[in-house]
Specification:
mainly alpha, Tetracycline Repressor, domain 2
């Protein structure tokens, strides 16, 4: 039993399970918005949650396998579970397979449409692991892959698609891409040495951070468009103002010549932003 517990903890660290908090509130926000005009069961919510966890676990596990040799060379990532020997590639592959099946099964329990859509979604998520090898726009691709979550949750509940939910997904795309650019500033020298692609490595941190700021400006605009499109309660604007302020603070913390606060910006502020969004959506839903 102790062995199983330790393995589960190691798998949890490998996929950085706490980071689920970045995208999950966006997907749950889509569920809340869908519930306003569509009936749904508790089981739908459970299957959406399991699908989210399964998809993200598969994507993160696959990324760790694909990048294992690279992680071994990078001082910052040698402590990761595969390079350090805590997990073998075979164990990790089994984990990815089980997580992928969990995602597909959960999608199937939601609807036949969700089942068929689960395959291209899984492909997009897994393919991200290769993008840093050929394009400096890998951050945008990551944002695209993850932004499928709110759309998927919306389709699972409503069986349809709308511009309103696309605005939320675009907000997530720009949000993820923006802070992934910030995070990748830590590996500029390593990426350049290994011939890997990222915006900071290819165009320098100053220009990359400027693009990150523009993307996060887009996040705010898309959330504002979502507010207008859904006809949300004005109280949401208070939460949106808080999100905008936190995005500004995030970019004040990270400077081209001072990257010491990246972890604070990446882990703490982004977590608060995601949670604030969900609370805002939940609150306006009660007040409408």
């Amino acid at each position: 039993m102790e062995y199983i517990k330790n393995k589960l903890l190691i798998y949890g660290r490998m996929i950085k399970f706490p980071h689920t908090i970045f995208a999950l509130p966006f997907a749950l926000s889509a569920v809340v918005m869908a519930w306003e005009n569509h009936s749904s069961s508790t089981w739908d919510f459970i299957w959406i949650l399991l699908a989210m966890v399964g998809a993200r676990s598969a994507a993160m596990g696959f990324n760790r396998i694909v990048d294992a040799d690279i992680d071994l060379k990078n001082k910052r990532t040698t402590i990761r579970e595969i390079p350090s020997g805590l997990l073998s590639k075979k164990e990790s592959l089994l984990f990815v397979a089980v997580s992928s099946l969990a995602f597909i099964f959960s999608a199937a329990m939601l609807s036949r449409l969700c089942l068929w859509l689960s395959f291209p979604v899984l492909f997009f998520l897994l393919f991200y692991s290769y993008t840093k090898r050929f394009t400096k726009y890998c951050h945008l691709y990551l944002g695209f892959a993850i932004c499928l979550a709110p759309v998927g949750a919306w389709v699972a509940i409503t069986g349809t698609l709308s511009w309103s939910i696309i605005f939320l997904s675009l907000a997530l795309l720009t949000y993820i891409a923006g802070f992934d650019i910030l995070y990748s500033c830590q590996d500029i020298d390593f990426d350049q040495k290994e011939g890997l692609f990222s915006l900071p490595a290819k165009i320098g941190p100053q220009k990359a951070l400027r693009i990150s700021s523009m993307l996060h400006g887009g996040t705010f605009i898309f959330l504002l468009a979502m507010y207008a499109s859904f006809g949300m309660h004005p109280v949401f604007l208070i939460f949106l103002g808080g999100i905008g302020l936190l995005l500004i603070v995030e970019h004040q913390l990270v400077k081209p010549d001072n990257l010491t606060h990246i972890n604070m910006a990446f882990f703490h502020i982004n977590s608060i932003i995601s949670i604030l969004l969900f609370i805002g959506v939940l609150t306006q839903g009660f007040l409408k």
